[in-house]
Predict the structure.
Amino acid sequence: MNKVVNTVAVVDYGMGNLRSVAQAVIHAALDTGVNVVITSSPQQVLDADRVVLPGQGAMPDCMRELRESGLLASVLDAAAKKPLFGVCVGMQMLLDHSAEGNTPGLGLIPGEVLKFELAGQIQPDGSRYKVPQMGWNQVFQKNLGRHPVWGEVPDASWFYFVHSFYAHPSDARHSVGEADYGGRFAAAIARDNIFATQFHPEKSAMQGLALYRNFLHWNP
Amino acid sequence: MILIPAIDLKDGHCVRLKQGDMDQSTTFGEDPAAMALKWVEQGARRLHLVDLNGAFAGKPQNYAAIKSILKAVGDDIPVQLGGGIRDLDTIERYIDGGLRYVIIGTAAVKNPGFLKDACTAFGGHIIVGLDAKDGKVATDGWSKLTRHEVVDLARKFEDWGVESIIYTDIGRDGMLSGINVEATVRLAQALTIPVIASGGLSNMDDIDQLCAVELEGVEGVICGRAIYSGDLDFALAQRRADELNG
């Protein structure tokens, strides 16, 4: 039987800021006919056309919960063949390894997750750098081969961040958006059918919703 | 999550009101700048100022005290201020004076056109303070309850480009009866901009509960009476919040 309705699954493995992500995805899906499910069922993730992988807290906890929830295989299946959107720690898990608790990641995008080492450094406005970075920051899109999920979102738009660790992809081409916080870091990474952000689109007002909307229309 | 010490200014002094009543105030300090520096030294990453006289008069009233705080704090941490901000000239004067965020409260509800203009003219600097009881918005220093639903108004404001929403549950402010975490999270989940919790923060349990929902979009919490009465050790509480969500 042909599936009539397009479905996006927001993966619930017990470690996401699920409601906010789901609210934003539902909002973005309005009038698109896309059905949004929040699910902890591996089968529903396997059946979905697109997958959103949120994540909050410490990466070791997130990795453990993803395994123990039994959802890991369905997420890897999604990563292999359908549009996948990772958010925050849901992005960090995509890399090979995190310095947080010396934790192996999923190895879907080559690279490391590193901690901000900014003690004693001063921001351009004269204030000290704080870790976690918490608040709005500008994201500069990579111009060369600009990623389609940016869509109509203007370059240097502001997005909302809460994090102490950041992605450092070993292949610069996998960094598709960067922000400055004591140096440039990858705020958005992508490879093939995977797109992921360190910032929280669900807390980034109109531009954040636009990203989710673009993701729902993205056909890599 | 950031803990934001509140410095409420009345007649040039630092005070706390009980349930927003100007006649029920306790003075905690005669020197606002010294108070500000004390919180900075204890690890505050943002300060929250309230011009109480301004809020009641509808125009700035504690300008000298505010200027002395901005001068003392300098560029070290951002400062936000509410109370009596009802026109663009006032906003411009404050931002030129070194203030990072202005908080628009009553005027945002009663004069939405002004808020829209402010967001256009001073994008990135506008926070809206919504005070509510049972989901309905209150105005004028809590003396009037409107029929507006908090969530509906806040959604409209986020569309206009407001930076964040400070949500105060007025049944609880100044009573040390615990913050209304459920109502705050509900609002944060309904919005795509962060929410700062306010009103009734009383102890470390509140910090734990708020940190648990931080990533639903609860960016920070305003600390009032509890850090002045000694019920909550500010420096300890900020360290705890950092440990919970480092």
Remarks:
- Residues 2-244 of chain B form a domain with the TIM Barrel fold (CATH 3.20.20.70).
- Chain B has one domain: 2-244.
